[in-house]
Amino acid sequence: MTRAARWFATLVAVVSLLSLAGAMTFVAGGTQLPPATPETSATPSVPAVVRAVLAAELPATAPGQELQLVRYVIQPDTRLATHVHPGTQIASIEAGVLTYTVLTGEVPVTRAVAGGTPTPVETVRAGQTTRLHPGDAVIERPGVVHFGANKGAEPVVILAATLLTAGQSAAIPVNDLGTPMT
User: Structural domains in the chain?
Assistant: First the structure.
């Protein structure tokens, strides 16, 4: 197992332990995420998307940067706005199926381990859409224009580690070419 794979496996284990311990301490408002649009009528009492920071740190080895461990819950029939991340985000699907589209750039996808054997990394390129299942992981680098949608009947749960400039929004809404929305 490579060093990166061990780090990611450890990260997923920590996220799982924190979530089981009830460590969800912060739910961000609309300023942290691009707006999501329900594709059908959503239940007014349930937000379409919830972003909860499970843990955060200002690492001494990355001055001016904030490392966050985050859980996203995306309700059924919800499409996230087209967006970019200003820093790197590594995300793994915990539950549900996310329809994931890359508009510009490319995103490496590691599929869930089948029978204990890791699968090769796939690349989702500009103009391509894939479905991400539990255990699948992506690495979203700065500037990659993309969006996700929950077209299923169950919520999609995503666990993510983000490294951003301290105090910066986790996602920036953009048009399909990557120009920030005003």
Answer: 3-173 (2.60.120.10)
